[in-house]
Structure to design on (336 residues):
């Protein structure tokens, strides 16, 4: 059992999470912004532009001199990159021969001059390696330090549909000072869903993004349960702390909301997924009936300290948002 299953990692660079492609040296055939689009790449055989075939990705012109092409991305959420996914979907005769990825930790910096001023500050995340066309080229990393920006380098030219930087969010510098309430379950604050019983329709991390849900797709939904038991999701909080209030939202889930839910907590810094599954959890919210398409708020809890929360839904269904407000001065990890 891995503690970092790829489909429960957060795409730190996604435009859905605020990522932005700051610059690219060339985007003749297809714009750089496509690299981090949240939606999966599509193929339209009939669509062309004034410059050639329309492609759902970033594509540079054919290089006629030595060199390489590049794009610099500011992550929407600073974090530790666990897996890099260079997706060449639909690029069959026009994908790069090889690619590399670099990273840097410069929170708050958007100035390109500052980013490229000293190349030695960039560290190699993925050494140059061959790519295959029309394929999700997946590379697992063994890293413990966060990054805020990455640079994708392709050799010598070509097209990449998506760049996914899958990893663990880290709390923004200075956020968890223990003096004010923050949403300890928000991925932008450093939280992440690390385990769940079912993610047939979507990841539980969808519950932890900012704002109200845009639709049923923008939340966590499990398959219909045909046997005994219930579904659940474990959230590693942004930091060890107390939880004063919880918000659970079933917006857009009208015929498929859970019948009831409860929330448990545990104080287990650094615990593995296996240990958490076997551990004894403490009740924070007892089993409560659920109203479909409704925002539920529970205050005055004063529970903790907790490092993880477990949301149990009975027996199955969908949850749009999960919030856990409280105070912490102990981030789950300290930024480098």
């Amino acid at each position: 059992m891995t503690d970092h299953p790829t489909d429960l990692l957060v795409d730190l660079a996604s435009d859905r999470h605020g990522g932005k492609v700051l610059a690219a040296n060339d985007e003749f055939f297809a714009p750089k912004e496509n690299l981090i689009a949240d939606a999966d790449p599509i193929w339209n055989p009939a669509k062309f532009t004034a410059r050639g075939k329309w492609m759902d990705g970033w594509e540079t012109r054919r290089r006629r001199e030595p060199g390489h092409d590049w794009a610099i991305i500011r992550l929407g959420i600073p974090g530790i990159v666990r897996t890099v996914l260079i997706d060449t979907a639909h690029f069959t005769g026009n994908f790069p021969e090889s690619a590399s990825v670099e990273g840097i930790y410069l929170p708050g910096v958007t100035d390109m001059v500052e980013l490229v001023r000293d190349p030695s500050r960039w560290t190699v995340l993925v050494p140059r390696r061959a790519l295959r066309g029309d394929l999700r080229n997946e590379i697992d990393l063994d890293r413990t330090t966060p990054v805020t920006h990455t640079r994708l380098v392709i050799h010598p030219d070509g097209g990449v549909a998506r760049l996914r930087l899958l990893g663990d969010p880290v709390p923004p510098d200075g956020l968890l000072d223990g003096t004010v309430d923050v949403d300890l379950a928000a991925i932008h604050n450093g939280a992440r869903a690390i385990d769940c019983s079912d993610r047939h329709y979507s990841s539980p991390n969808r519950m932890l993004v900012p704002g109200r849900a845009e639709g049923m797709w923008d939340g966590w939904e499990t398959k219909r349960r045909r046997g005994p038991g219930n579904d659940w999701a474990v959230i590693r909080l942004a930091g060890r702390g107390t939880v004063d209030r919880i918000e659970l939202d079933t917006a857009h889930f009208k015929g498929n909301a859970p019948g009831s839910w409860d929330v448990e907590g545990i104080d287990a810094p650094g615990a593995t997924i296996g240990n958490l599954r076997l551990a004894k959890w403490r009740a924070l919210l007892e089993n409560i009936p659920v109203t479909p398409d409704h925002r539920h708020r529970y205050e005055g809890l004063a529970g903790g300290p907790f490092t993880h929360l477990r949301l149990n839904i009975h027996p199955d269904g969908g949850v749009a948002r999960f919030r856990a407000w409280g105070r912490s001065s102990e981030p789950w990890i300290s930024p480098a």
